[in-house]
Design a protein that fits this description.
- This protein folds into three domains: 1-77, DNA Binding (I), subunit A, CATH 1.10.30; 102-182, Histone, subunit A, CATH 1.10.20.10; 189-218.
- It is built from eleven helices and no strands.
- The protein has helices spanning 8-28, 33-46, 49-76, 80-86, 105-112, 123-150, 158-167, 169-173, 176-182, 187-217, 228-249.
- The protein is elongated, with a radius of gyration of 33 Å.
- Residues 78-100 have low confidence and may be disordered.
Length: 250
């Protein structure tokens, strides 16, 4: 189970999704996932800070409850096999082989049960959801990797995820970009990235300006260097001024 629990944006989305879905179905005759996600994002932006605070308080409360429940479950030593038995699945007689698709089934089940409308989840549904999650992460990682590679990087960053969520139709339809844009848990990282970009642009400008100045000054000579006689007269005048200053001191 996520230790954070549902965010304020997710809670708001749960509240308004049914009405938005009904409105879109009545207007268009069919339901489009991308349209629902976009409509939810628009409504969220229209909320006042006081209205958003209501959902933030609920999210904080749920997060606290989840942490407390996790602590109790860990203390009691509950495991996946016990969960499957409660769902009516036959207990396994073979040695444990680890998560079926790389994700602990107990974790997947607990995340699914965050939804208050879900009471129980069968073992088959958990495995199917685990596999779907694995495929989703593979898709997202591949898309993010291409964005990073286009910028000659091997490290994936938040802005790679954001860029990928705008380009792939499947990610757009599932509302990933709307989540990244509207959920305030990403505000801090987005502000930090913007600050880093501004700093990088400033350094690039300074570096390029220095290169241009060096190139402009390269090979330049003083004006008197093109006139040997004038240059000689200037040196003589400087010497005379220096001797005159020394005589005044004496």
């Amino acid at each position: 189970m996520s230790k954070r629990g549902p965010t304020a944006y997710f809670l708001f989305a749960d509240d308004v999704r049914a009405n938005i879905t009904a409105d879109i179905r009545e207007r268009d005759g069919k339901v489009n996932v991308a349209a629902i996600g976009k409509a939810i994002g628009v409504l969220w932006k229209e909320l006042t800070e006081e209205q958003r605070q209501k959902y933030k308080d609920i999210a904080a409360k749920k997060s606290k409850e989840i942490k407390e429940r996790l602590a109790v479950e860990q203390a009691e030593g509950g495991d996946t096999q016990e969960d499957d038995q409660h769902d009516g699945a036959a207990p396994s007689t073979s040695a444990p082989t680890g998560p079926p698709f790389g994700f602990p089934t107990s974790l997947v089940k607990r995340i699914m049960c965050i939804d208050p409308d879900v009471n129980r989840v069968s073992a088959e549904a958990i495995r199917a959801t685990s596999k779907a999650t694995e495929l989703f992460l593979q898709l997202l990682a591949t898309k993010c990797g291409k964005v990073a590679a286009s910028q000659k990087r091997r490290t994936l960053r938040f802005n790679d995820v954001e860029a990928a969520s705008k380009k792939d139709r499947r990610l757009i339809d599932m509302g990933l970009n709307d989540l990244l844009v509207n959920d305030n848990i990403f505000d801090e990282v987005r502000a930090r990235i913007e600050e880093e970009n501004q700093h990088r642009l400033a350094n690039t400008y300074i570096k390029k300006k220095g290169q241009v100045d060096d190139q402009n000054n390269k090979g330049m000579k003083s004006l008197t260097s093109f006139f040997p006689t004038a240059q000689k007269d200037e040196l003589i005048a400087d010497k005379a001024d220096e001797d005159s200053d020394n005589d005044d001191e004496d």
